[in-house]
Structures
1.
Amino acid sequence: MSTSSEPVISDRVAESPEKLRTLLRRMMTIREFEHLGEREFRNGLIRGYYHSYAGQEAVGVGFIEAMDLTRDYIVDHYRDHGHCLAVGLDAVNIYAELFGRRAGVSKGKGGSMHMYNQEKHFLGGDGIVGGGISVATGVGLALKRMGKGGLCVCFFGDGALDTGTFHESLNMASLWDVPIVYICINNQFSMGTRLDRHSSLTQLVDRAAGYGMATEQIDGQDIGVTLAAAERIFAGVRERQRPVFIEALTYRYQGHGIHDKPHNYRTPEEEDPWIHRDPLLILGQRLIEEKIMTGEQIEAMRQEVAAELEAKVEAAKQSPAPEDRELYEDVTL
Amino acid sequence: MATTTPTKTKKMAMHEALNQALREEMLRDPQVLVLGEEVGLYNGVHYVTRGLYSEFGPERVMDTPISEESFVGVGVGMALMGYRPVVEMMRMDFSLRAMDQIYNHMAKIHYMSGGDLKVPMVLRGPEGPGPNPGLTAQHGQQLTLLFAHCPGLRVVTPSNQYDAKGMLKAAIRCDDPVVFLEPGPLNNKQGDVGEDDYLVPLDQAEIRREGTDVTLIGYGASVALCLQAARELERSGVSAAVVDMRSLRPLDMAPAYASVERTNRAVVVEYAWQSYGPGAEIVARLMRDAFWNLEAPVLRVSGKETPLPYAANLEELSKPQVEEIVSAAQQTLK
Ligand SMILES: Cc1ncc(C[n+]2csc(CCOP(=O)(O)OP(=O)(O)O)c2C)c(N)n1
């Protein structure tokens, strides 16, 4: 594992055609999911916050694909819809949560930022920047004690490195040999603040390196890279029982949240290179080059995914709102 | 503190009134500066700092990293050195991260130094379930009590646009640390604001409406609910007075006592959770000092004691309702 600050371009894994098709479909599902979700926000079905994962798909899908969810756990931040889909939660239940319905992942009580699912080992969905990092460290410590080789994966953004709890947690994880992978999804912005305006160092691996753990910066746009890195890193963490910090370089296409207009603080020109290295495009091109799919087949797949999700939106709309008495359930009064 | 009455008023949103206050004070005193997340280049998530970065520049309007504990501490340090920092919490919920600085430093240094040092800073931001719905459990909390509980802090909350401007200006000029709680539900609501330089005192409650049958006592966003309830009660022949507490530390009970002397009944209304909250303190003082004027137990209407739920029906149910105030008022009259 390297501690260099240069992006490590790992070899892509030679995955089976079937696997590559599945990964493309999963990333497409996330992209289309967000697309329809934002539409339903504008239609008034979703209220409050909506943080889109569009553009970052290769990070979540790659890393989660490499996890062993029979024993590993995830602690996430508020940009969580994509990760919920990647662990295999049904889009109906995620939409139902966004609509505030009973069938929602959190029974309609949590909303966009607060999806939790014990069965899928998905421990949130946290609205406080950095709030999950120490929790994830505790989960990792518990997994170590339990001795089944499980590890914890903790996702957060570049902004979370500015919180004290990030630094306190990494120190403890290193001190106590916690099997945890901290994944900083560096999408270049903390809300409207560009990386170099909020972080003293812009190579974020360098901010984690002081805790004596292995760090690695990777290309977060190419799922071949994220998946290969994830498989290699997870194997190392299981074996060595040591924490690792990953900086995945990526970009968020939409505003920070649905009301945010990104062109108030960045130009369409600077978005271009990222959009040219779109994660769906990169994998799509690879499938075409390797003659696994044609362009038409990819487009047909996209349409199929979109139609499926439309049906999920409709199904979620059928779920009733929680009953009034549920206000007082699941809380000590 | 001297107050003046403005000659001209203009309708504007509460965030515009607050923005005017900041701008006027920054023009008046070069020691005043603003810091917080997205307050500068981004113009503030709730628009309060709009335009200040382009007018005053990055030295006086500082965008901070997501480091609440430490940028509150930076505010304390600059205040000790004679600056007048106005530190924004994007949402007051995030001040939980900064509670050590608030409780142990901002609030106490003046006392611990035997009065030698001063901390003339303002910590401000929106609290409670608004302006928009769906804020959910970690972003829409009403944590007023946490600040009001701590000696050494002044804790104020305006109930209208006019006070918002005058009180923020007074808070910035005050030599004590002030926690200025902006009622989230009112952030985008319009009202009359004085156009010129005026101050509203930080330690005086105010009677907003005279009445003879029952006194409704609120603070911040709950004052509007009290006024609405008073109008409904009027239709059924009940004359309700409304008292706006405005400051929770120090707590000025005189207007409430005076009103209860006439009405002999009271209902305390707040968005906060009920147990141990500011409303509990208000009731305790009424018990002590207005007991012999009361004809009925003082009742309370509050936010429901649950985390703020997401589903629209549950969220609505979790907030204090005008009908609940009306029926509590009627109950005191039975
Ligand atoms: C403690 C805390 N402070 C402030 C916020 C408001 N806030 C929410 S997200 C965000 C920016 C975070 O950016 P980053 O960590 O890079 O993640 P991204 O949104 O880019 O995925 C801010 C300031 C918050 N939720 N919690």
2.
Amino acid sequence: MTAPLLQIADLRLAFDSWRGPVEVLHGISLNIRRGEKVALVGESGSGKSVTARIIAGLLQYQRGARISGHVAFDGKDLLGLSERAFRDLRGTAMSMVFQDPTSALNPVFTIADQFREVLGRAHKDISRAEARRRAAEALDHVLIHEPERVLASYPFQLSGGMNQRVLIAMALANQPALLLADEPGTALDVTVQDRTLHLMADLIEEVGSAVLFISHNLGVVREFADRVYVIYRGRIVEHAGTDALFHDPRHPYTRALLAAVPKISGEGLPDTLVETSDAFDAPAVIHDGCEEPPLPAGMAA
Amino acid sequence: MSSTFFKTIGIRLWTSALVLVGVSILIFCIARVIPGDPARIALGPNATQEQVELLRERLHLNESLPVQYFEFVRELFQGDLGMSLYTNRPVTTDIGDFLPATLELVVFAGILMVVVGIPLGVLAARYRDKLTDNVVRLLSLLGVVTPTFVWAVFLMLIFAFYLEILPVAGRLSQGVDPPPGVTGFYTIDALLAGQWSTFGDAFSHIILPATALALTGIGQTARLTRASVAETYDKPYVEMAQAYGFSDRRIASKYALRPAMIPSLTIMGLDFAAMLGGAFLVEAVFAWPGLARYGVETILHKDLNGIVGTVLVISAFFLIVNMLVDIAVAWLNPRIRLQKRWAG
Ligand SMILES: Nc1ncnc2c1ncn2[C@@H]1O[C@H](COP(=O)(O)OP(=O)(O)OP(=O)(O)O)[C@@H](O)[C@H]1O
Ligand SMILES: [Mg+2]
């Protein structure tokens, strides 16, 4: 078996505070193979976004963030990489889709300008005209019918759903090996969100990127992901294939989570489960066939 | 640029004109209610009562205020601001002589403020809470809290007296003829005429006063830019730029700076316009023959026409700067430029 595209082992994260370090991740292990769609679900504050931000290298160089463990991506040690080498990966080998599309786009530059900058990450000396042509093509792929009008617009002139499509097109324009989707489009209304998520799923299929899909929306996770990790307070509590997880949830926290969903409209997770239980701290349940592979040689502790 | 944009500018021009009318009425009245008879002051104690009365007649001082104002406006439209009682020349001639010197000083200081202040602020924001940031913050605070005239004296002592590398006072050295007047800016006129040594002389004379005048503005601009850029660094679009691997320098100088400039530009414009006020102290210290000094002399001599003329020019300067800043803000901010609804 070849090594996974992304492999995280025993990842720990603490933030310095004036009262001493506050632990946020307590040893997370997670892997994604090439082209695979993996979901990470859990309540608010459980550590989903910080995990994504470590993978994207946005936390490593920040003062006050203490990180230990192993993160390997495509044969590179992401915790030991220089800032410069990491920057070369971003926007090319990996990219990201954000929660609120309109605020993720710069308000004072046109979509065309921003798109050109993104394309320039993979194609160093791309000409203005060529960038525009490719951007229009990419927008066409996310079913934007007037790409020229959209390219000439500023984000505030477009609807949230339109901006979300633009972001998706940007994220996949350079055919990244890994896409980090941190609650994409949660800021949008439910039907728009649903439509753009399906668009994203189709495009990912086409490009063949692997995805770490962070979501509150269990309905979408069920439809979309190959495997699911459930995270609770900085620990993975259950890891299973999607069908297995939804048909046979074994960890008490996962069960409570799934039981809570029908009560909430739109299949979204509640921000936190109202009841907590000591049982939630039970050891992780790893379903058969979902064991973490050994770390690649040279990276083991 | 949309037509609504030009319409907005047109409206601004009209309101500016209205403000000027208001200011002129106000200063016109104030100048006339300060105690003391301007004619008597101008002619001195030895003049006879008849001579004073004659001058009062010529200045329409015996008419009611509205009539006086009407006369003033009528002459203004003929390009005449009246005679200065202090210099005994037309006020327009005085302003034509002194304004370019002040403008040159202020424009130089403004350029320094932008060219030094903004990069310092960006640097501090980019290295937030690191050594660079702390150094910039300390220096800019020093710039802000130290009064302009202290800077002026301090710079003069160090560079003109102690190190003797820059001239002490004036716009040109003794024996150097002013370049042929086109703009009235000696540096630019010298360049236009190809007089390199005159340019060098004029330039060396303006360095110290312009720096003294600019230091407060530089500090203010650096602080403002730092705060504003640091705030945009927390915006999702900057994180997005980082997540897509845009270089730090590009993010600092473009993706974070441009949105950050929108709120700070207006305040920078006011700081710049306020330099005209600070210019008086600098002109006094460096014996710079500018409008600020002229303005004070006219007030001391109760030179009615001189006071009103100077104040009008200064007000016009404020309004023009304000308008240029508005145009710059609109240019930077597509929401204003395109005059569409605000979304969020
Ligand atoms: N820069 C930081 N400094 C200090 N604490 C932080 C920082 N970033 C995140 N945290 C803390 O880490 C924990 C995990 O945050 P994270 O953003 O990963 O949650 P999340 O699972 O994404 O939640 P949500 O669903 O609300 O987005 C939270 O308790 C948060 O307060
Ligand atoms: Mg989050």
